[in-house]
Amino acid sequence: MNAPKPALPPVLQLEDVGRLRAGRPAVRDLSLRLEAGQVLGLLGVNGAGKSTTLAMIAGALRPDKGAIRLQGEDFLEHPERARLALGWLPEGAPLWPELTVREHLDAHGRLRGLQGNHLKQLRDAVLERLELNDLSRRLAGVLSQGQRQRLGLACALLHRPALLVLDEPANALDPVQVVALRGLLRELAAGGTAVILSTHQLAEVTAVCDRVAILHEGTLRYDAPLHSDEHAALEKTFFDIAMAGRAQAA
After folding, report:
1. Distance between CA 210 and CA 78 in Å, rounded?
2. Which residues pair with 71 in a beta bridge?
3. Which of 12, 86, 113, 133 could connect to 82 by a Cys-Cys bridge, CB 3.0–4.6 Å?
4. Domains, the chain, with CATH or none
5. Are 109 and 123 in contact (CB under 8 A)?
6. What is the full DSSP assignment across 151-184?
7. Predicted model pTM
8. Per-residue pLDDT tens over the stretch 202-248
9. Of 178, 199, 148, 241, nearest to 39 (Cα)?
10. Is the distance from CB of 19 to CB of 29 less than 8 angstroms?
11. CA angle 203, 206, 207 (to 5 degrees)
């Protein structure tokens, strides 16, 4: 009889992660895990610690305490894991205005160790998938906000990461593009990509996420599975957490 295959580690695991900002806790003792194919909606009011959390996951900020593991490996000891396993789209995609769309993708690919025909295949595939072919020779500096956002997403997806981290990805997208983004996230999840979606829009979370986590004042207050018909219940939970926090601060 063949021995059972060992269980794969979670794509992402946070263990008691904390980070100070200006001497005050921005994130406190945060523990989360995300499996392949899961789409996690990360919610919280302004100042809840969402962007700090995403920046730590992406490697842009170093936690003051705790551990972050990507595919079972300690992220702090092996920071190269982010380059290979993670795609990140921060709020407001950072782009080089003097490079074309195609040049952006080539540059991002080379930073991740891609080259030659493999890079070309991946670049052409993501240009096609995000409907950027007609813009491939256009300078990033003259793109509309929605086009810039799609280019930022293309750069994050180019190397087919195991974990995709998105901070307000629907910003500046028109309604048709928002629907297309939802379809893309479902497609990625079905293929095994884990996704973290941080947004202020509850409708975006209920449309594509199968799990939701709510941060308030840097603390995880809620973490549970989510079904598509639970918008009203999620709205009430989010409101109750936010109002309870304000009452304590008053």
Report:
1. 29
2. none
3. 86
4. 12-94+162-249 (3.40.50.300)
5. yes
6. HHHHHHHTT--SEEEEESTTTT--HHHHHHHHHH
7. 0.89
8. 888 988 999 999 999 999 999 999 876 677 787 788 878 877 765 55
9. 199
10. no
11. 80
